[in-house]
Amino acid sequence: MKLLRVLKLKKLFGKLEDYVDLSSAMVSLYEVLKLTFIMLFFAHWLACIWHLIASYEEAAGIASWLTAQKIVDESWEIRYFASVYWSTATMTTVGYGDIVPFTSIEKIFGIFVMLLACCIFAYIMNSIGGIFVTMDINEKLIGQKMA
């Protein structure tokens, strides 16, 4: 149920946009920061689920990616950053291959993440393209007003 509160983020961003009147350059920067926040938000949740799967497998005596990376007994920060690294590399379609799914459940989750990440990545790239188009249109309008 707590995850459903995330849906309120769109309302929050909408209210922020209504209250703040920004120049076109600032709007573009704001849009890029918003897209970065969205990507980091998804990376965080996917990393948490990725680590949760490995933790359950380790508790059941099944070797997971944590064992393969030799970080089972490391601090939670080390494991979290490794998880975020994996989710970010997977979401950005880089996938270096140094942290890979080890078990069947991890592989199934990896497939799910790759499919979801394609949609998120396409949305973000399309949005960035739209920002550049808007910036170009605004520059042309300003140039016409000055002429």
Q: How does this structure look, described?
A:
This protein has five helices and no strands. The chain has one domain (about 25-145): Helix Hairpins, CATH 1.10.287.70. The model has no long low-confidence stretch (mean pLDDT about 80). It is elongated and about 70 Å long. The protein has helices spanning about 10-20, 25-60, 65-70, 75-90, 105-145. Helix 2 (about 25-60) crosses helix 4 (about 75-90). With about 150 residues, it is mainly α.
* CATH architectural grouping: Orthogonal Bundle
Top CATH class = Mainly Alpha
Low-confidence stretches: none
Number of strands: 0
Strand and helix map with partners:
Elements: H1 8-19, H2 24-59, H3 65-68, H4 76-91, H5 104-146
Helix pairs in contact: 2-4, 2-5
Summary?
With 147 residues, the chain is mainly alpha-helical.
Properties at a glance:
147 residues, mainly alpha, Helix Hairpins, 5 helices, 76% helix, 0% strand
